[in-house]
Amino acid sequence: MSSEDLLEKVKKLREITGVGFKDCKNAIDENGGDIDKSVEFLRKKGIAKASKRMGRTAAEGLICISEKDNEFSIIEINSETDFVAKNEEFIKFAEEIATIALSKKGKIDDILISKMKNNKSVKESLVDLISKIGEKINIRRISYIDKEKLLNFSYIHSSLKNNVGKLGVLLSIETSKSKNDILDLGKQLAMQVAASTPLAIDKDSLDQSVINKEKEIITEELKISGKDAKIIDKIAFGKLNKFINDNTLLNQEWIMDPKKKVKDVIKEFAGKDKIVIKKFIRFRVGEGL
Question: 152-183: per-residue pLDDT in tens?
Fold first, then answer.
């Protein structure tokens, strides 16, 4: 690895973890330049703490939601700079793509060949916009939820305009109540997902590989810290349970009242009726890039 490559990787690792130059360089050297393995290495050493924002990126763009009759689409479209992301032409393009995504039920191949208002395909219009603006623009991801059986809700955080912003959530609920009855709760639950970044709805739906990896990191960190071997398992069990609670929607503290869990709020609101969260989708601009 050249000295320039090394410095670039160290810089990136410092931005991700907030750890000093020397420790980051050592981590990069120990892990053959692999950023993800270097983050894990620093966590195991107890130098870098777990953070939901370790995957942050400088990628810019917008999240757009389109909705009609309980059907929703959500898209992420990326640009190189925030300046372009606030460009009115870019915003209109993103909004139209979201509308097309809704009509095509989120199928990317169908979306790309669909005609836009300019009578050109989405794919052709994207090339034209790139040429005109002079930045790389990418339709990164699209998701869709239909209107069958479930009641659906959406939320855009810090919206630039209606259904356009940097972070968006779709959430589906199965219930015997009417949508008007749970309109406020549905919106608040979508806000909860936006604010608290859950990985899954509950423990059963949390990927076991994520749990196993977190357990490995916690145990290794405790060993390095010099904790008595007899109590490591007990401490690790407590830390792992906290990780699961923090990262599963139903077990999180309710943002409106941290003394309550999300599942308790739902139970209280439901009364004798049924309210079950079946799915959520959370898009944040640049996440995971």
Answer: 999 999 899 999 999 999 999 999 999 999 99
Mean pLDDT for 189-201 is: 96
Query: Would you kindly state where each structural domain of the chain is located, as residue ranges?
Result: 3-44, 60-200+267-284
Phi, psi of 17 (to 5 degrees): -105, -25
Helix ranges restricted to H, the chain: 3-17, 21-30, 35-44, 82-85, 88-103, 108-112, 122-133, 183-196, 208-224, 229-247, 262-270
Q: What is the CATH number of domain 60-200+267-284?
A: 3.30.479.20
Query: What does the block give as tokens for 26?
Result: 């050592």
> What CATH number matches the domain at 3-44, 3.30.2010.10, 2.130.10.10, 1.10.8.10, 3.10.20.310?
1.10.8.10
Q: What is the pLDDT of residues 103-137, one digit of tens each?
A: 999 999 999 999 999 999 998 998 888 878 878 88
Assigned token pair, 262 = 């999300």
> CA 276, CA 289: separation in Å to the nearest integer?
32
**pLDDT at 49 (0 to 100):** 56
Nearest CA to 61 out of 41, 86, 25 is that of 86
Query: What span, in angstroms and rounded, lies between the C-alpha atoms of 74 and 58?
Result: 21
Q: Is 59 helix (H, G, I), strand (E, B) or coil?
A: coil
pLDDT the model gives residue 48? 64
Positive or negative torsion for Cα 222, 228, 229, 230 = negative
The number of angstroms, rounded, from the C-alpha of 97 to the middle of its chain's C-alpha atoms is 20
Query: What is the CB neighbour count within 10 angstroms for residue 102?
Result: 21
